[in-house]
């Protein structure tokens, strides 16, 4: 059974993709800041809009396993390959760096971002897949545990608490 496409969602995704390309290639900081303020949140919102409801633990497990193999594992593979590329292409001493690259990869796999303050610089473009995976898991968890009409409120509070945590550990100034 083929899922029916939602035309306006496809158009919005296309706009976000074009904005991403412009944002990464544009030298003007004001334009980049404007584009980066909406293009990735738009992808997440559209993904949430088009995802089906997860109301049972069985469906939560099924979707989680599916996302693990289709999203997270792919991102992890790319992060690990990027770590090895860094080590071998740059002719770095593999004995000293293998442990550091492995630890950095491990952080990146769970954190999903390039944050200099916590010595995490090798996630690269895979940050989106890692964050998307964890976001879907969290969103689906909330659907199973709580009444859906309050999930936006709960996730908003959780986001705000995480923002305070980032400010507390000193990462927030690097993200803004």
Word description of this protein:
By secondary structure, the protein is mainly alpha-helical. Helix content is 75%, strand content 0%. It is built from 8 helices and no strands. Helix 1 packs antiparallel against helix 2 and helix 1 runs antiparallel to helix 3. The radius of gyration is 18 Å and the shape is globular. The relative contact order is 0.09. The mean pLDDT is 80.
Briefly summarize what is shown.
By secondary structure, this protein is mainly α.
Keywords:
8 helices, mainly alpha, 176 residues, 0% strand, globular
- Please summarize the sheet with the most strands: none
| Shape annotation | globular
What percent of residues adopt helix (DSSP H or I)? over 70%
Radius of gyration: 18 Å
Which residue ranges are poorly predicted, with pLDDT under 50 across at least 5 consecutive positions? none
Secondary-structure blueprint of this entry?
Blueprint: H1 7-25, H2 29-36, H3 39-50, H4 57-89, H5 94-111, H6 127-145, H7 151-169, H8 172-175
């Amino acid at each position: 059974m083929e899922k029916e496409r939602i035309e306006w969602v496809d158009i919005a995704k296309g706009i976000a993709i074009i904005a991403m390309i412009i944002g990464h290639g544009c030298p003007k900081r004001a334009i980049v800041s404007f584009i980066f303020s909406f293009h990735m949140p738009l992808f997440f919102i559209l993904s949430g809009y088009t995802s089906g409801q997860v109301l049972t633990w069985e469906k939560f497990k099924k979707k989680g396993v599916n996302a693990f193999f289709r999203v997270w594992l792919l991102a992890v593979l790319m992060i690990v390959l990027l770590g090895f590329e860094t080590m071998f292409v740059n002719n770095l001493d593999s004995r000293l760096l293998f442990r550091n690259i492995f630890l950095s990869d491990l952080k990146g796999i769970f954190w999903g971002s390039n944050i200099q303050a916590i010595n995490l610089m090798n996630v690269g473009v895979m940050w989106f897949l890692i964050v998307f995976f964890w976001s879907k898991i969290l969103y689906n968890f909330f659907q199973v545990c709580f009444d859906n009409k309050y999930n936006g409120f709960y996730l908003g509070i959780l986001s705000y608490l995480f923002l305070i945590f980032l400010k507390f550990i000193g990462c927030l100034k690097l993200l803004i």
